[in-house]
Design a protein that fits this description.
With 362 residues, the chain is of the alpha+beta class. It has a domain of 76 residues. It contains 14 helices and twelve strands. The chain has a nine-stranded mixed beta sheet, sandwiched between helices. β3 and β4 form a beta hairpin. The chain starts with a helix and ends with a helix.
């Protein structure tokens, strides 16, 4: 069983490979401002992070990952283009699987560059693949941007599109909204009664809770507007289902999505980027003919990914988390850039899992 020092040595070795690729070494505080994380991800982040309180700094979280603080650092002080690498502990609560580590090492590689985004994505993926070479792993890829483009292309209201966008990373909730917005699922009886009432507050009793009456009235008005909205067409639902069902080798997936784009032009740009990325990956020696692409892949990951996503998994160890993962997060730079933004893509590897697959234990 490799000890802590052995894991750190492996992390240092991997980070040196990223340095050799042109990355600058950076470090970030272990304690992160909880307010920033909550603004970005909502209360869901509490289920995954360790939260503490500081009398002067307020609520803090043990670093759940490196990407957010690296983006904050770059948007404040970084030059362009930039490549960064780092190594250190991250902390994740494990409430469902006690065997999974709640503290583990990550080594990452992040690229901030405006030109040729598909080339940057291929660079990150191929570099991480080279770090993992020789390990019994399978790779999976996806593209959240295609699903986002499909939602934007739906013939429905901006409010409904915004609701679907919020829940792209929650597949069950997303499906429930599609079913309701298309009329396949009935509106709950309690909501129907509420909307039918001439005065919803007639028998409501005293106000309890944090929402004001004005806020409740605004919400009821929104629900009434939604009830009067025409359902999403069956064709659009079928096209969305066709996109989500794509799961095959990258060249075949590209062909299928290109066919779907004929009937759903809103995804054409994202599908074209997929084709350019495939060519860039192939140019870097990636065997794209055997590279798996799943249109729904990445929807259970951190919510900052908004384009290309990937992961490397132990071929014969379904019980292990990803040995490496990453993706594009342009929107995160907009949220943290206070008016500025820059295309960004990166990935992380877990040295402990690498050592386990080599014969040790994470």
């Amino acid at each position: 069983m490799p000890d802590r020092l052995a894991k750190r040595a492996e992390a240092t070795r991997v980070r040196a490979m990223f340095e050799a690729a042109g990355a600058q070494v950076v470090d970030t505080p272990v304690l992160q401002d909880a307010e920033t994380l909550l603004e970005l991800y909502g209360e869901d982040i509490r289920a995954r992070a360790y939260v503490t309180s500081d009398a002067l700094k307020g609520e803090q979280m043990l670093r759940p990952d490196f990407t957010l603080p690296v983006v904050q650092m770059h948007m404040t002080h970084g030059a362009e283009p930039a490549r960064y690498t780092y190594a250190g502990e991250v902390f994740r609560r494990q409430e469902e699987d006690p065997e999974r580590a709640s503290e583990f090492l990550q080594v990452g590689y992040e690229v901030f560059e405006r030109g040729a985004p598909e080339e940057a994505e291929a660079e990150v993926f191929a570099l991480i693949a080279s770090v993992l070479r020789g390990l019994p792993l399978r790779a999976a890829t996806g593209d959240i941007g295609i699903l986002m483009a499909a939602v934007e292309g739906l013939n429905t209201t901006a409010r409904r599109k915004a609701a679907l966008m919020r829940h792209i990373w929650r597949p069950r909730r997303f499906r429930a909204l599609i079913e309701r917005f298309s009329g396949r699922a009935p509106v709950p009886a309690s909501r129907t009664a509420l909307l039918a009432a001439s005065d919803p507050f007639a028998e409501a009793g005293p106000a309890i809770g944090l929402r004001s009456r004005a806020e409740v009235e605004t919400r009821i008005a929104a629900l009434r507007e939604d009830a009067d909205t025409a359902p999403i067409t069956e064709q659009d639902v079928e096209l969305m289902d066709a996109i989500l069902s794509v799961s095959e080798a990258l060249p075949n997936a590209f062909e299928r999505l290109s066919d779907i784009a004929v009937d759903m032009p809103s995804i054409s740009g994202a599908v074209s980027r997929l084709g350019r990325r495939s060519a860039a990956l192939q140019a870097r020696g990636v065997d794209v003919a055997n590279l798996q692409f799943e249109a729904s892949y990445g929807r259970a990951s951190m919510e900052y990914y908004d384009g290309f996503v990937f992961g490397f998994y132990a071929a014969d160890r379904a019980d292990l988390p990803p040995v490496a993962s990453g993706g594009r997060y342009d929107a995160l730079t907009r949220q943290l850039g206070e008016g500025a933004e820059i295309p960004a893509v990166g990935g992380v590897v877990r040295p402990g899992l690498m050592m386990q697959l080599k014969g040790g234990a994470a």
